[in-house]
Each structure stands twice: as structure tokens, then as C-alpha cells.
Design goal:
This protein is of the alpha/beta class and about 170 residues long. The chain contains 3 helices and 13 strands.
Length: about 170
């Protein structure tokens, strides 16, 4: 399956046909394919890459992995759910990519003891009832019912280039 530009038109190849079109609408989402961490246990059903409903995690131990707005917003939303134990793990020592208001809300909940912050840290293993996190050269094993990985996405860059789509990378400010 492919899309290539050909003389001002697009040739769209699917598993069933080849079509020509003057325009093509790509509905691939904003993030593309979620970025995985390639850690043992990441294929368990308790691992997701986007939080849909914080209520589904009521009374659970939840690990959120990431340092951008999606991760901070997920942790903050989970903190509002009764009896939920939230840990946020991020590989860097500070949140360079998250908006100030998200960092401030997170800091407040960390001070209140609603969110445990582990940074810099690295998720090393996911088990059915626990996770192993490396921090300060020490592995901590935490009870765990769910893992939400907010590590961004991988765009289909080569596919888009072949289709004649010009891309420009822009970086936000903290």
C-alpha cells in the first residue's frame, strides 16, 4: 500500500486496487504510531499508550511514563480518582516539553502526596502485578495494575515523503 505523486496527481495503491486522484486525505491521527519503550512485559494487556477514562483506574496502582503534556495531564486526571495510586516516571531530571500550567498542577499534587514522582528514572520491566523502575542505580519494584506510556508517536515520515508531502519540524517552548 502506497501513495506516490505522478505528474500532479497521486497514484494510490491498496491491497485491492490502484486509483489515481487529484487529492488525497490522510487520516493518520496527530501522533502517528505510539512510540514503544521496548521493555519486557510491554505487550501485556494492562499497558496502553493513551488514557481514555481515568475512572477505569479507580483503586488501582497506575504507572504513567513520560514527560510531556500528555503524561502530566494523565497523572493529574488520575489523581482526581479516589483510591488510585499514581507514579509518574520520566527519564530526564526536569520537564522541558510540558506547559507551565501542567507542571504547576503536577507539582501541587506531588506536594500533597497524590502523585509519586520518579525522575530521572527508567522503566525496566513490566510484570502482571508489578513494575521495575531504575532510579539512582537502584531498581525499585512497585505494585502495579496498569501502565500508561505517553512517549509520543512515530510519524510515517518516509511514506509521507514518497507521497510528495513536505514536512517541517517545529519545536514548542517549555
Amino acid at each position: 500500500d502506497d501513495i506516490v505523486e505522478d505528474g500532479g496527481e497521486f497514484v494510490v495503491r491498496t491491497s485491492k486496487a490502484v486509483e489515481r486522484a487529484s487529492a488525497v486525505l490522510l487520516a493518520i491521527g496527530r501522533r502517528g504510531t505510539p512510540r514503544t519503550l521496548d521493555v519486557p512485559g510491554e505487550d501485556l494487556p494492562k499497558v496502553v499508550y493513551q488514557m481514555i477514562d481515568p475512572e477505569q483506574y479507580r483503586s488501582q496502582h497506575v504507572l504513567v511514563v513520560g514527560g510531556g503534556d500528555s503524561a502530566l495531564e494523565a497523572a493529574v486526571q488520575l489523581a482526581a480518582v479516589q483510591d488510585t495510586v499514581i507514579t509518574l516516571s520520566y527519564r530526564a531530571g526536569h520537564f522541558a516539553r510540558a506547559r507551565l500550567n501542567n507542571r504547576e498542577r503536577l507539582d501541587q499534587l506531588v506536594r500533597q502526596g497524590r502523585i509519586r514522582l520518579m525522575m530521572p528514572s527508567e522503566l525496566k520491566r513490566i510484570e502482571s502485578n508489578s513494575v521495575d523502575i531504575l532510579q539512582d542505580d537502584k531498581i525499585s519494584t512497585l505494585p502495579n495494575d496498569a501502565v500508561i506510556i505517553c512517549a509520543g508517536g512515530i510519524l510515517p515520515t518516509e511514506f509521507l515523503r514518497r507521497a510528495g508531502i513536505a514536512m517541517e519540524t517545529k519545536y514548542g517552548t517549555p
